């Protein structure tokens, strides 16, 4: 590991130990100091960002990506507002999750505690640099940030401004660190920093996430790959079904909770598919359908790859299924375990679908687009976990914590005959 | 991956999908059928076990390990009793952890669901084969068991008896599987079975656990390495301190929650250390002390390795520290994050120690030996997690589950202007 990397990782580790026991008030003061400093340094941030934007333009980056990269005074104001909102949220640390007095008198509590150092690998959106740092600080964690190299100038200034703001607070400035270096090596270093980094959250495409999962010795929380399905049941209200399908696919196609496949029960295919194809066409969506879908209109032929695809575009795969169970089997085979929806009037079908579909979220008569931390009322979101361990679905502040058991006695000893308390002088 | 391994892993996966939606009653019936079958097949199990014992003896295995390996009618009865106890426990699956009606009317619930297929790598105790299978089944998971090769004959028969018992129940018999093969290759196959296995729980020594953590692409829950500390504060009741120290070290030295180091505040070293050394000597414990401990009596000199050691024997490392903070720094540096205890009459010192020590459990005026699923009232325990992600400390049935979000609407759509419900015909 490079000296450079070790230096920031160790600084984050030390800061994490200092930060962990802090109560809410000093953390909130630090967050508000960061928000104010970002606004105060707007000119400097915009200047650094302009370099990133110019470089991206030189490299022929698509305009949509350049837009995600760009910062201006209004956007910096919005980023600062978001930091104030994180300060407004309750502190998860110290929450007593379980507790009891055991039969032997030991007082047992399970408390939320910070995870420690959280490594975050993310795309070229500089606002994530601040959002992620704020969520980590609020939950008592140090943040080790590895943003896209396309935003390196912006991120460097943003992190420096945050560190300088922290220097005037009780939160150690080392708690926010940018991973140095622009190459893939720095991602590798993060992945091998077991003992220095407690958890790694990769955000981005499937290939990044798969490579992190394969190579990381640091525990990973997978986020954000969404091959979401809408299943139109034999008992569906077809008007609702069309509305939900169009909303799930087309309202914002570039996000992970957008639908990528729809499945129609054969019993309603005659009535539903022609209407769906027309509505999708009107919404500018290209349909990649199986043979039975193709019987109802002109569609692109669907391959295995289409059913596996997270298009993130105005494309959707489609198939007719013989039963709810066949829909579930399709989702199990091709889905990514993010969000899958059923449209049905049948209580029994809804219950069965919810029970059989093994995904982070299951929607009944609602668009898949609601799987989101803000929609769920979390106030903030670091990502959407599609794994089963630790956190599943939208991750808010509690998902950035671990727990600690505390038990208090008065000299309690464990013996083969049960608990013995020699005397109570404690 | 070998065909043999893929066959059992796929069978477990299929069984897991069938098992997951089952409610409590059929799972409990299946567990009781297993318990009865084990007792009914006592002769066959004992015969297979005798082969393992004979082979272990031939290989010069220490008597203590042979004792852990041995099964007789009484022990099989006890194993069956333990299965009945798991049946008596509440079912974690389906528990609603959080839930609300969102401002837009969506009904949101977070439910406990099974993890899926749980791989367990464990030591040469055939009772674990049944315990682990029972805990997995109760929590709706399929178990993929990789026991020690020293118990292979016993495990083969135990798993066959369990599978045959399941064939007469609603739980698919494929839900309990023994990983075929005796070599380390089968451990490697388990570690690379991402997509087939949802979580891997290695039980055993630090070297096994480290190699699994390094090499596994399946998410891992680390268990059981315990370098536990007892810190005797300046304000300690020294009578209690001696009792707790001796209990934590000597009551059962071979377990992970036994103490491996004690740290004494310099302010009470004169009064405490000579008494502690005498009491430890009387209990047959060898002390590996630093220079300041050595000033009070004859001890082995302590090296770095002693402070890092999980002795699991009648040995203990010891050091004098200048302050509570120095004790915490020692624990952070050398500890394994399992259980650390403070003995003190001071509320402030207790509060500070609890806040600063970053371990799965912190004990105040109590022996470290209480960090245990049964002592905590869990009814059963699959291991003690020393990692921060997903589960920390003793793991009972809820720790063998994931969660699923379910939201139900009546045609809820997400728009840039907020939620829209076109009509309510759902």
UniProtKB/TrEMBL annotation, chains A, B:
Location in the cell: Cytoplasm
Chief location bin: cytoplasm
All copies of domain Aldehyde dehydrogenase, residue ranges: 3-285
A Pfam family reported for this protein in Swiss-Prot or TrEMBL: Aldedh
Keywords: Amino-acid biosynthesis, Cytoplasm, NADP, Oxidoreductase, Proline biosynthesis
Enzyme Commission (EC) number: 1.2.1.41
Enzyme class: oxidoreductase
Catalytic activity: L-glutamate 5-semialdehyde + phosphate + NADP(+) = L-glutamyl 5-phosphate + NADPH + H(+)
PROSITE patterns from the UniProt entry: PROA (PS01223)
GO MF terms, alphabetically ordered: glutamate-5-semialdehyde dehydrogenase activity
Pathway recorded for this protein: Amino-acid biosynthesis; L-proline biosynthesis; L-glutamate 5-semialdehyde from L-glutamate: step 2/2
Biological role stated in the UniProt entry: Catalyzes the NADPH-dependent reduction of L-glutamate 5-phosphate into L-glutamate 5-semialdehyde and phosphate. The product spontaneously undergoes cyclization to form 1-pyrroline-5-carboxylate.
PANTHER family named among the record's database cross-references: DELTA-1-PYRROLINE-5-CARBOXYLATE SYNTHASE, GLUTAMATE SEMIALDEHYDE DEHYDROGENASE
Family affiliation: Belongs to the gamma-glutamyl phosphate reductase family.
Protein name, per record: Gamma-glutamyl phosphate reductase
